[in-house]
């Protein structure tokens, strides 16, 4: 049973509401670790490439920077916890999966558009396909980690 906290409204009614649930506990710890690694890896790689090699493959490097932002937001949401963060992370994981599938397909159909790889190129083949597995795992965990709705306020 999830933890609850007593909640007293201004009108004197009381009820219980679920405590803020951490999404980074249990199996979520592995997700936090992986999103942390991918955030740092994608951000540092894309930052270097954008600064030093932008003219070589601007689309690929910009998409890698976008993936770093998505990874960072999901990481922040997982660490923050709570229902609002869970919903935000759920939306970002769905966006991430669409990005991996879209960019992965694009890189296979039009390799000339990507003279250098992105994190999501070829469905993340350069990263052992973790970029395609990670959002699926995240979506499953976030769906399972759904918190109970707050109980209705009860009159004392």
Measure the end-to-end span.
24 Å
The largest pleated sheet is described as: 2 strands, antiparallel
Structural class: mainly alpha
Detail the poorly predicted runs: 1-7, 148-154
Q: Specify the number of helices.
A: 4
Based on Cα principal axes, name the global outline.
elongated
Helix content: 55-70%
What is the CA-based Rg, rounded?
Answer: 20 Å
Major sheet: order of its strands?
A: 1-2
Please state roughly what percent of the residues sit in beta strands, choosing from under 5%, 5-15%, 15-25%, 25-35%, 35-45% or over 45%: 5-15%
The ordered string of helix (H) and strand (E) elements is: EEHHHH
How many strand units? 2
The chain-level mean pLDDT equals 84
Structural account:
The chain has four helices and two strands, in the order E-E-H-H-H-H. The chain has a two-stranded antiparallel ribbon. With 156 residues, it is mainly α. 58% of the residues lie in helices and 6% in strands. Helix 1 (28-52) packs antiparallel against helix 2, helix 1 (28-52) packs across helix 4 and helix 2 (58-80) runs antiparallel to helix 3.
